[in-house]
Amino acid sequence: MSERNVSKAAEKVFLSQLGMSHALSRLRTLLDDPILMRTEQGMMPTPRALEMEVPVREMLNRINRTLYTQKPFDPTTNDLRMQG
Asked: Residues 6, 19: contact at Cβ < 8 Å?
């Protein structure tokens, strides 16, 4: 939504333009909403997309923090056993 351009959004998430178009198509079908509409100013979100933007961003941020928060390695508390 922030890019307002399918090709730029695809680059941002490491997909091809075709892959992003297919993903957008699946999302449109799932939500029964066009989500983004082509205008002279670029792709503009529908009211439904705007309604979902903040909650979806919050969920993605939470997932990102969960996956990428690194805890310092402490060998005294590590319970991995050498196998061999």
From this structure: no
Position 37 confidence tier, pLDDT thresholds 50, 70, 90: very high
Question: What class is the 6-65 domain?
Answer: mainly alpha
Q: Give the residue carrying structure tokens 């957008």.
A: 24
Burial of 84 (0-12, 13-18, 19+ CB in 10 A): exposed
Strands 36-39 vs 42-45: parallel, antiparallel or unpaired: antiparallel
Q: Which helix (H) or strand (E) holds 11?
A: helix 6-12
Q: How far is CA 30 from CA 1, 36, 72, in A?
A: 17, 14, 40
Start-to-end CA span in the chain (Å): 50
- For 44-60, what is each residue's pLDDT tens digit? 999 999 999 999 999 99
Answering whether pTM is above 0.85, one says: no
